[in-house]
Automatic annotation (TrEMBL), chain A:
<keyword id="KW-0677">Repeat</keyword>
<keyword id="KW-0813">Transport</keyword>
<keyword id="KW-0067">ATP-binding</keyword>
<dbReference type="InterPro" id="IPR003439">
    <property type="entry name" value="ABC_transporter-like_ATP-bd"/>
</dbReference>
<dbReference type="InterPro" id="IPR027417">
    <property type="entry name" value="P-loop_NTPase"/>
</dbReference>
<dbReference type="InterPro" id="IPR017871">
    <property type="entry name" value="ABC_transporter-like_CS"/>
</dbReference>
<dbReference type="InterPro" id="IPR050107">
    <property type="entry name" value="ABC_carbohydrate_import_ATPase"/>
</dbReference>
UniProtKB/TrEMBL annotation, chain B:
<feature type="transmembrane region" description="Helical">
    <location>
        <begin position="264"/>
        <end position="283"/>
    </location>
</feature>
<feature type="transmembrane region" description="Helical">
    <location>
        <begin position="113"/>
        <end position="132"/>
    </location>
</feature>
<dbReference type="Pfam" id="PF02653">
    <property type="entry name" value="BPD_transp_2"/>
</dbReference>
<feature type="transmembrane region" description="Helical">
    <location>
        <begin position="80"/>
        <end position="101"/>
    </location>
</feature>
<feature type="transmembrane region" description="Helical">
    <location>
        <begin position="290"/>
        <end position="310"/>
    </location>
</feature>
<keyword id="KW-1133">Transmembrane helix</keyword>
<feature type="transmembrane region" description="Helical">
    <location>
        <begin position="316"/>
        <end position="333"/>
    </location>
</feature>
From TrEMBL, chain D:
<feature type="transmembrane region" description="Helical">
    <location>
        <begin position="235"/>
        <end position="257"/>
    </location>
</feature>
<feature type="region of interest" description="Disordered">
    <location>
        <begin position="343"/>
        <end position="370"/>
    </location>
</feature>
<protein>
    <submittedName>
        <fullName>Sugar ABC transporter permease YjfF</fullName>
    </submittedName>
</protein>
<keyword id="KW-1003">Cell membrane</keyword>
<keyword id="KW-0812">Transmembrane</keyword>
<feature type="transmembrane region" description="Helical">
    <location>
        <begin position="111"/>
        <end position="132"/>
    </location>
</feature>
<feature type="transmembrane region" description="Helical">
    <location>
        <begin position="269"/>
        <end position="302"/>
    </location>
</feature>
Length: 515, 350, 298, 370
């Protein structure tokens, strides 16, 4: 194999944050025209490596070589001028600017003297069209869902003539369709000789597109492998440091519990006729229309559908964030007014939102504080959890969910993306909910952690918790739900038993087949 | 190698109130260098008397307002109407007490309403104005600066309306105790400060209120999604801030034995905001420190008293103030501190 | 003939003095049957200019105003002149090159007030005694930095003391014309200078009243241990004098209403009016206070 | 599934074009239009209530009397959009008038030298603010508050007296009146202010600097990660504000022909209020320079209304100003938000052919108030 000269080479990079050694002597190289995947568990140091490459952080030790000469980028803008274009893990765009500006601002020739808006908008539209998104690019970014925002971030990275493209979990919110589009764009760029650094937790995508894989574990380099030489099993094992199954047992009949256990579970709720929550004819202008759902104790109801089909909006209605204008909600057979999230929480509902950064975490508060927030809100101001109780709670969940942090007092914004998600889950588990709404809960979570988390959730479900599970990955929905409600055009178009269905059945319903 | 003292120092340096404390100490030391009598405290008529006591006594209204404002700022708000509310509560109290000079020479030592009622009503009025702010901001979604600006303008008018543009002199001696009295040798106003501080510390550190306020200030959406009643919290923060301004108004009017609708509490809002920020609470909301704000108020008052007692000519006063504020904020900037910290480390390593 | 319309732009309502001034003008206008367009500038010159401009737009018969400062009136007064509206100044003059921009100035003389305070002080028997024995140490509470009364009252006071080598101003600080600040500054003076202070000169009564409290709290007797002279002669000052805590107050009369109205009527009638009318003002030492008190209107 | 999707996106295109061609008000301009409408209503109300109010000159006086405020408010708007604040505006105006007066009058320098000099001085003060705010990471409030004290203090150091400007250049400029129809006229200041307004609109909406400003206000962290020149832009913003303050100071000198340390007290608050009333959010990232013009006009109209009323006592003046402002803001909120809730003007986009609406955005906007 002839080794080309690396465009980008990193030697012995180390980085320490207060209390955490995020990277320790890591080497990495990126060859021209390759897609190079960086893999590792949550908190392994992938994002940190990227942030060092792009000048967000300064390394403690080590060198960065760009085409053989050493560089010391001091800011992302410097890195961009050096030809490194980046999509960071969280969507880091400006919500108040228009989509077109977010995509083009700062490097577009049409801005040279006076911004030529028409030209700018047309360019943005074209870039988005490449990714199969057709939206009004003059609208503020914040009017779009997190998935669309992610696509915009990708489009921004693609809009510059860069030598190197860095993508940190660009697909975490995307549905299959957009992912496909992105992969094909990546292939095109690769063919043009661009070097791409790609971080994702989706093994399928890795094996589909990448040429080589660098694996990190706990901030240390495990190794660099051509993708052909690594099986999925080996990859996961190297990442995690031990052998694990790649996918958990599905919820389908008999897959998790023995038939005896299963019938015992079903029997336990036999006496109670009413489902935990049932909604009828829910609707709201500009949101979903005429949605009827039943979420039963001890069962997981999946919600499938394409991007923007209204899944998140159902969750918002059920959690009292938006008020339903039509229809009714019954909890345990009694009609309930869910006029605010607090009301929903008091009814025993919990909600993990999909936009972690804006709707989930309170960035500057500590892990402990983020965890106890919902429980404390549920208890009210004066029934305060003592500091000791809080510490215990934090400790329990840090251990139970395997959150990677030196201690519970670290601000949550300093955790790696996946670990933040775990903290959010802990927040809701701490309230001891009777129903949990999970909107893309596995976003940005590594394979091992995903298993752990879903295992935990399923366990709770078996113990009687009702689950509403929303995910863009149909496969995941199929795997972790008992029944699946399918959404299209902001309406529910069908409901099926998960056990009897596979992906094609769901897609058929989405495409407008039988209900 | 690190000695236990440097370890201790480093631990202290991490505390928010450390730097305001250092600043205050520096200011006091400066005074000592200039005026050796600055620290002298004598006993006069059974109570302590001296510059330090003056500073404490004089800073009391500011400390109380700064505490109320800290809560507001922690919710990512601002209240610039505190000065006007100070004037209103003083005006209400003075008019309720009423009274006139007795021409025979002595003052008429009487009040139209019982003192307790006077205090309760003035505080209630002040709190109502705070609630008014809170309502406009949390329920009508007005921007805090505009909502409180409206009260800043209107409130002065209201205060003057109450006093009819006059300075109302108060002759009722028991009322003077609030701002002039001494308890156990210390100014009574300090006990009020202590009580407010204790109450607030209890509320924000021993109940979940502090957590909720910080969460609302940092990410209101996430806080609401986690079940925090953001609106109610914001509403009560302003209401409480109004109450604090009311208390300060009573102290001020009692201290000068009169209510001046136009001048009482003038520009207090700037001093109070400055106090909060010098104390280490960011204007962007979130993490807050009440003790820091109290220290901030002390810093400001010490500076003012220093300027008077060192004899800075009035034309230069503002320049001096500017330079000190500038130096203090540089000293408190994280950037500079980190620089100092790394320097310290290097020295230790040597 | 229609009623005369007078546009009056007041500085604000920053003190009792000002409130009395406003009241006097309002009352006088009502009495004389003159329609008063009153506008409050909230201590800002630009607001006064705006008000004058709006008076011009409303085509009033006469414009009167108490300027915040002397300077800065040329452009807007020129407009008034072009519109043919005569301008009367109250309380304080303006400095403009073209003297025809205003017809009459009615008001007190701040410099003179400062002089009177100093003259009274120099002649005051206990102070004379002090001066005979040694130095007389004066502390001064100035008005708002840069404001006209503060500058002029200081100027007039210093003018007289220039020839009195025994009299020394040892400290001078601004008390912003308020009781609270007056008290605060005096406290600091007392701590710094202790018993050295013989005399307090305050640019207005309110600061003196505040300072009196500080002096009492320091265990001294205002009016005896420290001689106090201030300016304005408002009611509060008389109360303090009756109680023996203030030694003298120099009058600065706010009751300009009746005089102003008669000027306005003359101007409209086309009669010649004097360019300068100085208001009658007295000096009220402690002894006269009790007798004078019932006559005070403000 | 691919079928379904491409069909949908094919459908999206005509939908998109039709949305473009419909002459519908862009929802983002709605608040601005509402504000403008309310201004017209307010002016109309004044015209009905007071004789002589409805005249072109009264309207033009709004510009003449508030030209310096407009200039200062423009600089303030920029700073607020970037998520900061500049409290030094009023004192820099005062300092400018003072320096102008001293150099022109007492030193006899030529205005041709002094005017550029004070502009440079203002810009430098702003530059220093910006540098300190950015590099020391100190809150803008504090830095500019110190700047405010300093500039005012320097005025007093120069002279506590007010100084008349008698220089012929200044008196002539202040006397110039550009005639307009119906026997009305405007002053040089108005021309300067409107010129500045156009420059500002260009800067805010047609330059990279302006858009970066909005980006920083939206999220400084993101702007940094997007590779935008955050440091440069932030510093430039304060420099611009300092420059505007100095320009406002020059306009002030033309307006009053005097230099004085107590000039323009509290002008920063008026400027902030004008910007905010004009629709700029104090949290940064959103607002229009044109809105600030309307804000200034509204502020001026409220004052004019009260002057025409002419019988309010000093305290009622304050109360009425506050209440008018309150009513205005409440109406602005109610009208500016109403249609968005009802639907037609709500931000609707097409994502793969499906309509979406903006709860997330409303959520954020709703929070701004608290
Ligand atoms: N700014 C920071 N301050 C302190 N610690 C940090 C900071 N950024 C990252 N860390 C820590 O560094 C470690 C590596 O984080 P990094 O974000 O690189 O992980 P990652 O591999 O990208 O994980 P994920 O897959 O969850 O995104 C984590 O333990 C994290 O808590
Ligand atoms: N153009 C838009 N206007 C307003 N809100 C939008 C818009 N686009 C997306 N959103 C919001 O983004 C969120 C996601 O939308 P929705 O619930 O329709 O999608 P979904 O089915 O959950 O799909 P996904 O989350 O994968 O995008 C919702 O809160 C939605 O209202
Ligand atoms: Mg990461
Ligand atoms: Mg969704």
């Amino acid at each position: 194999m002839t080794e080309a000269v690396p465009v980008l080479e990193v030697k012995g990079i180390s980085k320490r944050f207060s209390g955490v050694q995020a990277l320790r002597g890591v080497d990495f190289r990126l060859l021209p025209g390759e897609v190079h995947a960086v893999m590792g568990q949550n908190g392994a140091g992938k994002s940190t490596l990227i942030k060092i490459l792009t000048g967000v952080h300064r390394p403690d030790a080590g060198r960065i070589l760009l085409q053989g000469s050493e560089i010391k980028p001091k800011s992302p803008s410097e890195a961009r001028k050096l030809g490194i274009s980046t999509v960071y893990q969280e969507v880091n765009l400006c919500p108040n600017l228009s989509v077109a500006e977010n995509i083009c601002l700062g490097h577009d020739p049409s801005e040279a003297f006076a911004i030529r808006w028409k030209q700018l908008n047309r360019k943005a539209e074209a870039l988005l069209a490449d990714l199969n998104i057709h939206i009004d690019v003059t609208a503020p970014l914040s009017t779009y869902s997190i998935a669309v925002q992610q696509v915009c971030a990708i489009a921004r990275a693609l809009s510059t003539q860069a030598k190197i493209l860095i993508l940190d979990e660009p697909t975490s919110s995307l549905a299959e369709d957009e992912v496909k589009m992105l992969l094909s764009v990546m292939r095109k760029l690769k063919a043009q000789g661009m070097a791409i650094l790609f971080v994702t937790h989706f093994l399928d995508q890795i094996f589909e597109i990448s040429d080589r894989i660098t694996i990190l574990r706990n901030g240390e380099l495990v190794g660099e492998y051509p993708v052909a030489e690594l099986s999925r099993m080996e990859l996961v094992t190297r990442m995690v440091g031990r052998e694990i199954a790649e996918t958990g047992p599905s919820r389908a009949k008999g897959a998790r519990l023995s038939p005896a256990e299963e019938s015992a579970r079903d029997e336990a709720y036999e006496g109670v006729e009413a489902p935990f929550l049932s909604a009828e004819g829910l609707g709201r202008r500009g949101s979903v229309q005429d949605v009827g759902l039943e979420v039963k104790r001890g069962k997981a109801l999946g919600v499938g559908g394409l991007l923007g089909s209204g899944r998140t909006e159902i969750a918002r209605l059920l959690f009292g964030i938006d008020r339903a204008e039509e229809g009714s909600i019954k909890i345990e057979g009694k009609s309930a007014q869910l006029s605010s999230p607090l009301k929903a929480i008091q009814h025993g509902i919990g909600f993990c939102p999909e936009d972690r950064k804006h709707e989930g975490i309170v960035g500057e508060l500590s892990i402990r504080e983020n965890m106890v927030l919902a429980l404390q809100a549920k208890r009210g101001i004066f029934r305060t959890l003592s500091r000791k109780q809080q510490d215990e709670l934090a400790e329990i969940y840090i251990k139970a969910l395997g959150i990677k942090t030196p201690d519970a007092e670290k601000p949550i914004s300093q955790l790696s993306g996946g670990n933040q998600q775990k903290v959010l889950l802990a927040r809701w588990l701490a309230t001891n909910p009777r129903m949990l709404i999970l909107d893309e809960p596995t976003r940005g979570i590594d394979v091992a952690a995903k298993l752990e988390i879903m295992e935990k959730v399923m366990e709770l479900c078996d113990k009687g918790m009702a689950i509403l599970f929303i995910s863009s990955e149909i496969e995941e929905v199929l795997c972790y739900s008992d029944r699946i409600a399918v959404m299209r055009d902001r309406r529910k178009v069908g409901e099926i038993e998960a056990g009897e269905a596979d992906e094609s059945t769901v897609f058929k319903i989405i495409a407008g087949g039988q209900a | 190698m690190s000695s236990p003292t440097s370890e201790l120092l480093r631990g202290l340096a991490k505390k928010r109130v450390f730097w305001p404390l250092v600043t205050l100490a520096l200011l006091l030391l400066f005074n000592l260098a200039f005026n050796p009598r600055f620290f002298s405290i004598t006993i006069q008529e059974g109570h302590l008397y001296g510059s330090l006591i003056d500073i404490l006594n004089r800073a009391a209204p500011l400390m109380i307002i700064a505490m109320g404002l800290t809560l507001v700022i922690a919710t990512h708000g601002i209240d610039i109407s505190v000065g006007a509310v100070v004037a209103i509560s003083g005006a209400v109290a003075a008019t309720m007490i009423g009274g006139q000079l007795d021409l025979s020479g002595g003052a008429q030592d009487a009040t139209r309403y019982p003192l307790l009622l006077v205090i309760v009503v003035s505080l209630a009025v002040a709190m109502l104005f705070g609630m008014w702010n809170g309502m406009l901001i949390s329920y009508f979604g007005m921007q805090p600066i505009i909502a409180t600006l409206i009260l800043l303008v209107t409130g002065r008018g209201v205060a003057q309306l109450i006093t009819e543009g006059q300075i109302i002199t108060i002759y009722y001696t028991p009322y003077f105790f609030i701002g002039n009295g001494f308890l156990a040798g210390l100014p009574f106003s300090l006990f009020i400060v202590a009580a407010v501080l204790a109450l607030l510390l209890l509320l924000t550190r021993k109940t979940a209120l502090g957590l909720f306020i910080e969460a609302v200030g940092l990410n209101p959406v996430a806080a609401r999604f986690a079940g925090v009643r953001s609106r109610a919290i914001i509403f009560w923060a302003y209401a409480f801030c109004g109450l604090c301004a009311g208390i300060a108004g009573l102290i001020v009017s009692s201290n000068v034995k009169s209510a001046d609708g136009n001048n009482a509490g003038l520009l207090f809002e700037l001093d109070a905001i400055l106090a909060v920020v010098l104390g280490g609470t960011a204007l962007n909301g979130g993490r807050f420190t009440l003790v820091g704000s109290v220290l901030g108020a002390l810093i400001i008052q010490t500076l003012t008293t220093t300027i008077y007692s060192v004899g800075v000519p009035p034309e230069v006063t503002l320049v001096v103030k500017a330079v000190v504020v500038f130096l203090v904020s540089i000293l408190q900037s994280d950037k500079v501190r980190n620089r100092i910290a790394t320097l310290g480390k290097v020295q230790e390593a040597l | 003939k229609d009623k005369i319309v007078l546009g009056f732009s007041q500085v604000g309502a920053e003190s009792e003095w000002r409130t009395a001034n406003t009241q006097s003008i309002k009352d006088a206008a009502a009495k004389e049957g003159i329609t008063l367009k009153f506008s409050d500038a909230q201590q800002k010159q630009e607001n006064q200019i705006k008000a004058i401009r709006s008076f011009i737009a409303q085509r009033v018969d006469v414009i009167a105003f108490s300027p915040v400062v002397e300077t800065g009136w040329e452009p807007v007064l020129r407009e008034a002149k072009r519109a043919g509206i005569p301008v009367v100044l109250t309380d304080r003059s303006v400095s403009v090159k073209d003297e025809s921009l205003w017809v009459s100035f009615l008001g007190s003389d701040f410099v003179e007030e400062g002089r009177r305070a100093a003259k009274w002080l120099v002649d005051y028997a206990p102070v004379k005694e002090l001066a005979a024995k040694g130095e007389v140490n004066i502390v001064e509470l100035q008005g708002t930095v840069g404001s006209a009364p503060a500058i002029d009252r200081k100027k007039g006071f210093e003018e007289i003391l220039k020839n009195q080598p025994k009299f020394k101003i040892i400290r001078s600080q601004t008390g912003d014309f308020t009781r609270a600040k007056g008290k605060e500054v005096m406290e600091a003076f007392l701590k710094a200078e202790g018993k050295k202070i013989n005399v307090l000169y305050a640019h207005n009564d309110d600061m003196a009243i505040g300072a009196i409290q500080a002096i009492e709290e320091a265990g001294l007797k205002p009016g005896k241990d420290i001689v106090i002279v201030s300016i304005d002669a408002v009611k509060g000052a008389f109360e303090a004098m009756i109680a023996g805590k203030l030694n003298c107050s120099v009058e600065c009369s706010p009751l300009l209403g009746p005089q102003l109205m008669s000027i306005v009527k003359d101007v409209v009638a086309g009669k010649p009016v004097p360019r300068r009318i100085v208001t009658e003002e007295g000096v009220f030492p402690q002894e006269t206070a009790a007798k004078e008190f019932p006559n005070r209107k403000y | 599934m691919n079928n379904g999707n491409s069909a949908a996106s094919a459908a999206a295109f005509p939908a998109l074009t039709s949305a473009h061609s419909r002459p519908r008000l862009d929802p983002r301009f709605l608040p601005l239009v509402v504000t403008l409408g309310l201004f017209v209503a307010m002016f109309g109300a004044g015209s009905v209530a007071f004789e002589g109010f409805f005249s072109l000159q009264v309207f033009l006086n709004l510009f003449i009397d508030n030209a310096f405020l407009l200039i200062a408010a423009i600089g303030m708007t920029f700073v607020i959009i970037s998520g900061g604040i500049d409290l030094s505006v009023g004192s820099v105006v005062a300092l400018t008038t003072m320096v102008l007066a001293v150099l022109v009058e007492n030193r006899g320098w030529s205005p041709a030298v002094v005017i550029p000099l004070v502009l440079l001085m203002g810009a430098t003060i702003g530059l220093v603010h910006g540098v300190v705010i950015h590099y020391f990471e100190i809150q803008p409030f504090i830095v500019t508050l110190a700047g405010m004290f300093l500039a005012r203090g320097l005025c007093y150091l120069i002279s506590i007296d007010s100084i008349s400007i008698t220089n012929p250049f200044f008196s002539e400029i202040s006397a110039v009146q550009f005639p307009l129809p119906f026997d009305t006229s405007i002053s040089v200041n108005v021309v300067i202010a409107l010129g500045m307004l156009l420059v500002a609109i260009y800067l805010a909406h047609y330059t990279r600097f302006g858009r970066t400003l909005y980006a920083i206000g939206g999220s400084e962290q993101s702007a940094l990660l997007m590779g935008l020149p955050v440091a440069k832009t932030k510093i430039l913003t304060y420099t611009f504000s300092g420059f505007c303050s100095a320009l406002a100071g020059i306009a002030f000198s033309f307006y009053m022909l005097s230099g004085y340390g107590l000039h323009a007290q509290g002008l920063e608050m008026d400027a902030i209020a004008a910007a905010v009333v004009g629709g700029t959010l104090l949290t940064g990232g959103s607002g229009y320079v044109a809105g600030t013009l309307v804000g200034v006009l509204i502020y001026g109209t409220i004052q004019t209304l009260i002057m025409f009323e002419g019988s309010l006592s000093s305290w009622w003046t304050k109360i009425v100003i506050g209440l008018l402002l309150l009513v205005f803001c409440l109406l602005q909120k109610a009208l500016g938000r109403g249609p968005r809730i009802k639907g037609p003007a709500r931000a609707t986009q097409e994502v793969n052919g499906q309509q979406r609406s903006a709860p997330a955005a409303t959520e954020r906007a709703a929070h701004v108030g608290g």
